[in-house]
Design a protein that fits this description.
It contains six helices and four strands. It is of the alpha+beta class. The radius of gyration is 15 Å and the shape is globular.
Length: 116
């Protein structure tokens, strides 16, 4: 987790990482993600509206029905890189919502925010 946060800071990204999955067993990452999301409301008091998994495992191939359009695939050799930021933004921010960009960081703006 510290390595990911360090990479996000290196690329001037806001830290919006809520946590990480626990390790159930090797190659069980999709199950770990499902468990984390189920616990998120109780732990953090929130509903998960959008999410991505940043991993060097091919999660979309492991469980396509759950992981389709939620995966940012890194590599063991290179780790998290700048191009992964844009990929994550595309997965998290629906086209129907506007983007406000600040230092290559996008955040979602709801219609009520834009009319105020």
């Amino acid at each position: 987790m510290a390595k990911l946060l360090s990479c996000l800071n290196q690329y001037d990204c806001e830290e919006r990482v809520l946590g990480k999955t626990s390790e159930i067993a090797p190659f069980e990452r999709p199950a770990e993600i499902v468990k984390w999301m189920a616990d998120a409301k109780q732990r953090y008091g929130l509903e998960v509206a959008g999410w991505i998994a940043i991993d060097d495992m091919p999660l979309e191939q492991m469980q396509p029905s759950l992981m389709h359009r939620h995966c940012v695939l890194t590599t063991i050799q290179r780790g998290f890189e700048r191009h992964h930021i844009a990929q994550g933004e595309r997965l998290l921010i629906p086209r129907s919502q506007k983007k406000v960009v600040n230092k290559s960081i996008a955040r979602t703006v709801t219609p009520t925010e834009t009319s105020a």
